[in-house]
Design brief:
Length: 304
């Protein structure tokens, strides 16, 4: 089911038709507060009242016109100017900034966003996409990090290479958002079994948390896996960290009760709020993460 859903995520016919179906639009509302930024901002204000921070992401990937990438940059500049009150950060996909078309232009777009994020005292995260982009994304990040301190990158624990990538990044005092990984990858490069992905995730935490304590890295545990978070917290405690130094991020609409519990307990919790009309591929990846979500989609279809 995971493979099928990830295949559907890449299918151009489905991508152009499914978003028109009203039951699909109803189903996606579970993970998006709305398509417009105003709905995302309102959700961030509500979360802020519960002691939870926000991470905004405008949905979209693999743009084919540089003009569209330029509009994404302008949009984020407006978002950064408008969201000072909620202390939000932003997260972008390199292919949404033109990486497929012109890597130099994509880098210039990232530089502009890093500048805007710095001015707004915010933080720019670079999402990690499928493995065809890993090297180029790491390269963009390393260059950007040499010019800007408030930039971070998502790394995927399902890739065998990630431990090596972490080691290479460490001298630059990186900011790493550690995720399990959301794309369909072959077993030659990614652990096929969930237990191996989880074990690698934990090993990476064990390696990085002492670096966080020494202020040599920023680490955000971007996962809904509360067992893993609890295990990582034991490593953090052993490294002498306070709860407030342990950063966790989850997606809007997923395990909201756990988001609130962790925030109440004193962890630094942030929720990624996605918005925009290009939700199709992103939404299919959310369904693939938990195929039981298909039941919810079916209920929307049959009005149950
Ligand atoms: C803040 C954030 C940023 C991310 N950025 C990236 C990125 O840049 N690149 C990338 O490849 N991936 C990214 N991801 C996605 C990530 O790679 C995983 O696919 C996703 O988080 C699901 O894995 P998990 O860590 O939650 O663990 P899992 O073991 O999959 O899930 C743990 C538990 O969480 C719940 N859960 C998880 N996912 C769902 C869901 N979709 N619906 C309902 N319940 C669910 C279930 O109860 C499950 O048992 C991001 C995730 C987060 C939270």
């Amino acid at each position: 089911m995971r493979k099928l859903l990830l295949w559907c995520a890449q299918n151009k016919w489905l991508a152009s038709h499914v978003p028109r179906w009203s039951f699909a639009r109803r189903a996606v509302r579970r993970f998006l507060p709305g398509e417009g930024f105003d709905a995302a901002l309102k959700a961030a204000v509500d979360l802020r009242a519960q002691g939870i921070g926000a991470l905004f992401t405008l949905l979209g990937e693999n743009v084919t016109e540089l003009e569209d990438a330029g509009q994404v940059v302008e949009h984020y500049e407006e978002v950064l100017a408008a969201s000072g009150g909620v202390h939000a950060e932003i997260s972008v996909k390199p292919t949404q900034l033109g990486l497929d078309i012109d890597p130099a232009a994509a880098y210039a777009n990232l530089q502009r966003l890093a500048g805007a994020a710095g001015k707004a005292k915010s933080f720019l995260w670079i999402d990690m996409e499928g493995s065809a982009y890993t090297d180029r994304t790491l390269d963009l990040y390393s260059r950007l990090k040499s010019e800007h301190s408030h930039v971070g990158i998502a790394l995927q624990a399902y890739l065998h290479r990630t431990v090596g990538d972490v080691a290479k990044l460490l001298p630059s005092k990186p900011a790493i958002r550690l995720v399990k990984g959301a794309y369909a990858e072959p077993p030659q490069i990614a652990f096929p079994a969930k237990r191996d992905v989880d074990a690698n995730y934990l090993a990476l935490c064990a390696f990085l948390l002492p670096e966080v304590k020494r202020h040599h890295a920023r680490l955000v545990l971007a996962t809904h896996d509360t067992d893993l978070i609890a295990k990582a917290w034991r490593f953090a405690q052993a490294a002498g960290m306070e709860r407030s130094q342990m950063e966790v991020a989850m997606l809007y609409g997923i395990r909201a009760d756990e988001q609130r519990r962790l925030a109440r307990e004193g962890f630094d919790v942030r929720v990624l709020i996605a918005y925009g009309d290009a939700w199709y591929a992103w939404y299919l990846r959310r369904l693939a993460e938990r195929p039981a979500n298909m039941l919810f989609v079916a209920r929307q279809l049959f009005g149950a």
